[in-house]
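Re-running the complex after MR caught last week's input typo. The corrected sequence lines follow. Everything else is unchanged.
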Amino acid sequence: MQRMSDAIRETLRALPHFHGLDLELFERVVVCAESRTFARGDMIFLHGEEARAFFVVRAGSVRVYRATPDGREQVVHHLRAGQSFAEPAVLSLGRYPVNAIALESRTELVAVDSRFVELLKQEPRLSVAIVSSLSMRLLGLVERIEELAITSAPARLAHYLLKLPAKDADRHLVVQLPLAKKDLASHLAIAPETLSRLLRRWQDRGLIRSKGKTLELLDTRILLAIADRDE
Amino acid sequence: MQRMSDAIRETLRALPHFHGLDLELFERVVVCAESRTFARGDMIFLHGEEARAFFVVRAGSVRVYRATPDGREQVVHHLRAGQSFAEPAVLSLGRYPVNAIALESRTELVAVDSRFVELLKQEPRLSVAIVSSLSMRLLGLVERIEELAITSAPARLAHYLLKLPAKDADRHLVVQLPLAKKDLASHLAIAPETLSRLLRRWQDRGLIRSKGKTLELLDTRILLAIADRDE
DNA sequence: CGGTGCGTTGACATTTCTCAACTGTTGTGG
DNA sequence: CCACAACAGTTGAGAAATGTCAACGCACCG
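Corrected-run output:
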């Protein structure tokens, strides 16, 4: 079981929440955590359920979504290895406000349960770290809102692509889409067809080269202009 | 000057951040705060400036916005009495990521400066309160994102109207728009003309009655259907 | 009383969605 | 390991929604 515990440590250590925490305190956090494995399609929690833990993705991926009255789903977040979710539910609400489902078989999560809240109350260093981390996430959400507030689809897409972590190839950038294109479309609040056509158009114009989830950004200057035009 | 201090107390006391704080600790928070008055058009802080304080609106209103390369403004937030802003800048970033400007003459703010961060480090009760408060705000932002992810303009608007605090009149609801219509349009990421036409159409159909910023929602059932159709 | 900016309305251009058909890819059970 | 089902992605055509531009009324402020 030591091995499992090491995996938990590694996962938690990488989390912004625990940056700069001394080892002794960090170990007390680790005690609140356990590993859980889910199969594709398993529900991690349901809307309305009592929030007993927040989660960190160790492997696989997770979709957090809201079920709408007419049965469709609205995606709230997509989470992949290294990302955490449901902190607000545990730290404040007490109930999960949304549903979460595992998207891949062998999706492994680290669950940090409510003993963590107790620890938070005793350890200012920890709660200051969490305050800082939540603040960063707030800023991230504000950016996301700004992105969605951009009215034109090309501007939203260009904006998104340019913010993606990029590798430098000679004279241009290479980015990997972290989402399936249909999910990216949903993220940008556009129809999948529109996304497909935009990429096609840009490829025809020589702005990008598109091969599956790999995109080469050939002319960032024009892409920047497109992103700025409507924001 | 005792009077000023009372006003600060009152403003801070109403903030979710300090709910449930005992008096002694609350007083130590008050010490970190001072009141500042701005005229219409005064800059409260600039993008990139060192974040020395976060603010609570006591009177008047504030616009937080990002300046875009082409000189236009993108509104991030509108703040009115009782609301606070710029916490993340102080608690984590160290610099303001956006600009803030006073919109009315005699806009009065309470500035809570960085001594507060020191206090946070010493007082777990305080930092737990802040964690909870930030969590709630995170949830609010997620809702906002969900709202913006709704693709159709009528659905976004209906959704927005139905969430507004409403007074019950006989057989229908009365709501007050807290924003100028052009700002509401920007908030919903639609053109002001579209907003105007939607309200007009709904009025013609007998769904609402519109008089300036006061709206009577005459048929919430249909409005709900409109809000749900696209979300 | 004149100016400035908000809100409305109309006409029009454009974008984006919807629907439908087709292709390619992936994963699964036989 | 293959065949096939299920799903992701692409493309086209047409409809619908929304933005843009321009003109005008109106209220508020100096």
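None of the earlier attempt is carried over here. The radius of gyration of chain B is 20 Å. Residues 152-154, 190-191, 193-194, 197 of chain B lie near DNA strand D (CB under 10 Å from a C1').
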